[in-house]
Structures are given as C-alpha cells and as structure tokens.
C-alpha cells in the first residue's frame, strides 16, 4: 500500500539517515524562526542549501518546504518559518541560468512522491510502462503508474539507501545499496527482495547500474573506485579497480557491441570495460580540471558526456579518438550532471544553476535550447540522472522536492 505522507516526527527521523554534515545555528541570521529552521532543515541538509538557493517569497518558501516535511498540523509554525526564510532569503539572481530559446516544444508532467524528505531520484521506465524511482534518504524504491497516478513504495533492508534502480527483462527491479555494500532485486509481484552482498566490504558504495543485452548487471562504486559485474543466474560478483586512484566511477552505459563505458567523476577520463575479461582501458580527456558525472551513447556509437568540472558538453569518437567539446549555455559553473541521447538529440541539465535548466543540443546544427525545470510551485533542483522512455520522451526528477517528472517532447 502506498504511503500517503508522514508526520513531522517521522520526517525528522527519516532525514537522520542523511550523512550530510550540518552547520551551526550561527550560520543563520538572527530572527524569529531561526531555531525552528535550524532544527528542521539541518536534519536533512546543510543550512548552506538555503543561502545558496535562488530565494523565494513567503508563499514560495512554504511551497518548497512542504515538499520536504509535513507541517500542515501546525499552521503557526509554518507561518513563522516561511516568514523568516522570506525575510532573510528573498529572491536573488546569483545563480540564474542563461536560457536559450528555440523551436522545440516540451511539457513537464510532475508527480510528487508520497514519502516526504526521501530525495526521490533516477526514475526509469520498466517493460510494463510503469515508472520506478529510488527514494535514497527514505531507504525505499517506488513505482508510479503514469496513467492513473497511483504510487506504491517498497521499504528496503536496513541502510540500503538506494542510489539508482534498473529493471531487468523479466520485470524485476534492481537497486544499488549505496550505504550497505549490496545490490538488491525486488520481485514486484511477490514483494520479495533478494540481496547480493559485495564480496569485499571495502566495496561499500554500489552507485549506478545497467544491464547488458545478455542480462549481466554492470555497476560502478564511486568512492570504492571500482567497477562491478553481477551475473544474476549464479549470483557471482566480480570487482575490478579503476586504473587511477580517485577516479570515482559514476555513470555507466553499454554500447552497441556490449562494451560498458564509465564516466570518471574524480579524474579527466572515460573508461571502457572488456566485457569478457573486465580489463579496463582509460581514455584521458584533454583538460585536467575535467570531471564527468555521466555519459550516454548515441546510435552511431558516439560517446556523449557532461564535463561537469568545466561546464561543457563533450563527445568522444571511439573509432577515431577525436574529442570535441561545446561550452554549456550557462557557462563554466553550470555543472552539467545528467545526460541522455533521445532520437539523436542530446539532453542534459545544468545543476549548478537555480532553477536547474534542462538543455537540448542538436549535433547536426550545434544549436542549444533550454528550459527551467519546475518542482511544483517552485524551482529547486537537481536532476542527477535522466533516461528516455520507449516513446521517445524523457524521465527526470527534482530530488530536492521529491518530484518525478516526465518531459514530453515535441521534436
């Protein structure tokens, strides 16, 4: 049965799963409501998230924190908090993106997930047309029926803290246990969860996973600096270390030949994996400040990647070795994050800006177009992963406000 909401107490308990450090109360300006904001907001994230935001009116702040915690039973407390935030953190222009106009039309279809404060992320379409997501801070994964809007959430084993979800060809949903060194499989028909523990406890943080055409699950382990392979038929897991220390493997995709490709979030590299031997080949990208959150592979075999460290979009040609990059519209601090190639068009987001911008790039014309990504009544990023639907649309999310979003594309 779907969870329809949580109380303030439950929300705070749920937020305590977070390992984010908090700042002292002195970091907030003095005023009525300071202690309330410190107690509630810093339970889930640093208060610097507030000062780094785009700022809101009183109504905007109330709309935003209502997606994170349920204070509807205490309207006086709501009013004090919203008034404090609006007074000290009004709208500002510090991180406004440069939005580019164009001819493509899109529509955002939003759903807010039931459990507040869960940091919903990484939505993906399963073979039956449902949309699944990972509620990392809520230690759950969820299912959305986009036709009816019905949702159901499945609690996971303690401390799994899933980073992503991936369906297999049989309809099972796999998640990466980012905090308990595991990969798990949910059978939606029975609710049974099968857990596959990492063979080495140092492999503590399975991150992003993808299936190849043979049904083998490949996954990254960012801070453990490894790449993994899991054979569901036997349960065997094999791990290999990245060629360089602190490469922090992040996004992973499979090309048309069955070769996994991995993005380096800590070094200026892409890495290909021999699917038989798991031998790794590193491709160094040109600038030492380059870091790559995610990548995707076009039908023509081109590797598209976000240069998160330098605010650029990149393309690597595996045949020729040619590397080309384009500055993102909002500049070097735009921090591109998620990326997907849909019908030959490259889509990504600028997570360093507020609002988080969705960017379209046409490789044929080299033209950009971009839109502000909504989160209900406010704009409060960020998108950490995006994946296409079978119909050629796009699934994104806003983890700060627990929103799952389908981008309907008229291209």
UniProtKB/TrEMBL annotation:
GO molecular function, one term: lyase activity
Pfam annotation, one family: Vgb_lyase
Enzyme Commission designation: 4.2.99.-
Superkingdom assignment: Bacteria
InterPro entries: 6-blade_b-propeller_TolB-like, Cyt_c-like_dom_sf, Vgb, WD40/YVTN_repeat-like_dom_sf
Catalytic class of the enzyme: lyase
Signal peptide: 1-25
Protein keywords: Lyase, Signal
PANTHER family: VIRGINIAMYCIN B LYASE (PTHR40274)
Protein name per the record: Virginiamycin B lyase
The gene coding this protein: vgb
């Amino acid at each position: 049965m779907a969870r329809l909401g949580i109380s303030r107490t439950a929300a705070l308990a749920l937020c305590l799963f977070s390992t984010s450090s908090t700042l002292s109360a002195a970091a907030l300006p003095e005023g009525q409501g300071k202690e309330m904001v410190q107690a509630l907001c810093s339970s889930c994230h640093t208060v610097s998230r507030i000062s780094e935001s785009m700022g809101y009116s009183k109504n905007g702040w109330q709309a935003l924190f209502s997606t994170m915690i349920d204070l509807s039973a205490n309207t006086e407390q709501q009013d004090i908090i919203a008034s404090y935030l609006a007074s000290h953190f009004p709208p500002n222009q510090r991180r406004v993106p440069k939005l580019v106009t164009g001819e493509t039309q899109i529509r955002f279809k939003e759903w807010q997930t039931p459990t507040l404060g869960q940091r919903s992320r990484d939505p993906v379409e399963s073979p039956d047309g449902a949309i699944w997501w990972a509620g990392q801070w809520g230690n759950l994964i969820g299912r959305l029926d986009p036709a009816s809007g019905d949702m159901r959430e499945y609690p996971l084993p303690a401390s799994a803290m899933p980073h992503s979800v991936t369906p297999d060809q049989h309809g099972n949903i796999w998640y990466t246990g980012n905090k308990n060194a595991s990969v798990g499989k949910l059978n939606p028909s029975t609710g049974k969860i099968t857990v596959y523990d990492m063979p080495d406890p140092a492999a503590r943080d399975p991150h992003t996973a993808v299936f190849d055409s043979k049904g083998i699950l490949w996954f990254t382990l960012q801070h453990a600096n490894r790449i993994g392979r899991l054979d569901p038929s036997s349960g065997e897991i094999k791990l290999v270390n990245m060629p360089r220390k602190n490469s922090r493997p992040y996004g992973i995709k499979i090309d048309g030949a069955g070769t996994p490709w991995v993005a380096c979030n800590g070094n200026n590299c892409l890495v290909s994996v021999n699917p038989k031997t798991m031998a790794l080949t590193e491709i160094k990208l040109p600038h030492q400040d380059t870091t790559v959150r995610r990548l995707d592979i076009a039908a023509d075999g081109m590797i598209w990647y976000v240069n998160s460290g330098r605010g650029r979009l990149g393309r690597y040609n595996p045949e020729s070795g040619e590397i080309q990059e384009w500055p993102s519209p909002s500049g070097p601090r735009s921090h591109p994050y998620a990326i997907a190639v849909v019908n030959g068009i490259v889509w990504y987001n600028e997570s360093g800006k507020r609002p988080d911008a969705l960017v379209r790039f046409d490789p044929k014309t080299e033209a950009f177009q971009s839109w502000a990504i909504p989160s209900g009544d406010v704009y409060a990023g960020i998108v950490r992963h995006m994946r296409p639907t079978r119909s050629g649309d796009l699934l994104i999310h806003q983890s700060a406000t627990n929103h799952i979003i389908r981008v309907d594309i008229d291209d």
